[in-house]
Amino acid sequence: MNIDELLSKKESAKLDFKREWYWKNSSTKQEVQKKKIELYKDIIALANGNIHTIGQISYLIIGIKEQKEPPHEIWHVDFDIVKLQQEIILNINNYISPSLQDLHIQKHTMDSKDIYIIKIPPYAHPLILKKTLRPPYIEDSLLLRAGEGTIIADYATRKAFEEASSHSIINLKDVNGVVQNSGIVNQHITIIHGESSHEHPDEIEPKSTIQIIFKNLSKSNAIPQMLITSASTNRLFYINEIKTQARKQYRDIYHIALPIDDVSDEEYFEEIADVFGIRETKANRIRRELVRMVNRSRDEVFILITDFENDRHLDDFAKLMRAILDKVGDRLRVITIGGEKLANLKTNMGIHSYFNYFERHGV
């Protein structure tokens, strides 16, 4: 969902507007800590949403004063929120189980004013407090959104929410062996591995696909792996499972969630560079710095790349990755996940495609 679409909506279980950041540079330590707890509460509640929004992405937008009807009022945010991304994830995970795997913070300039979008992916299970944030948000609470605010789920609501969450994420098989997800029957899964393929869903489990991919990556001079998903596939499940497996095998792990908004070339590559802590906006400079970073690493570097949705920049990004892989491919372990647009990067120019040698798997 792009910024214009988000700003055309009212606050909801999965969308929250804040006129300004939670604290200021001049705030005392006590004030900052108090406001951090409010931030964590809001993110946890948005991630859970409510029983009607399970599986949906959440957005916390800083710099917007909500009006009764759109358009909303834009305020300038004079605070660098992007740099707090990893700190927020780590600190929230002190309070919840299961852990928050990811969130993405992006800066946008509108009418010469900076606003920030915190994008929170959906999760396979409800995020439950494992210790108290502050009363009344105590240990073992399930925080949900109700209208524009946060509530603590009572017993019946929590039971219904957990039941709905399990059915929306866990793959169940009916008597015919067809995979189901959220009550919708999906097409048979096909895994393409080398020249062979299988079309028997009873023989194929999602985790086996991931095991095959990581087995391929464990080989010397392993080639990058490409996972192509259908429209009915729960892509987030694969992303989370791959990250879990990667943490077991690699020390240096990075996730590039490609910018999906229509941004300039410099903004696009700046967001990619931020993943690695690189302050560059030019593709050739990013390539140079990434090659240096990989060469300095004592171990193999793992990179997961997702969100191949923005057509405008995909070829330029593929060209960048190919140039990096040509330099240090023996020390990189790369997995890409996407749909038709990612598949086109492998096939649209035949042997001249930037991703032509990626090993493709389909789910």
Please explain how this structure is put together:
This protein has 363 residues and is of the alpha/beta class. It folds into 2 domains: 3-168, Methyltransferase, Cobalt-precorrin-4 Transmethylase, Domain 2; 188-362, Rossmann fold. It is 35% helix and 22% strand. It is built from 10 helices and 20 strands. It has helices at 3-7, 29-48, 85-92, 155-169, 206-217, 235-249, 265-275, 283-296, 311-328, 340-347, and strands at residues 15-18, 58-62, 64-65, 73-74, 96-97, 104-110, 113-120, 128-129, 143-146, 149-152, 172-173, 179-181, 184-185, 191-193, 196-198, 225-228, 252-257, 301-306, 332-338, 359-362. The chain has a 5-stranded parallel β-sheet, sandwiched between helices. A 4-stranded mixed β-sheet has the order 1-2-7-6, covered by helices on one side. Strands 11-12-13 form a 3-stranded antiparallel β-sheet. α5 crosses α6 (235-249) and α8 runs parallel beside α9. The longest helix has 20 residues, at 29-48. It is globular. The protein starts with a helix and ends with a strand.
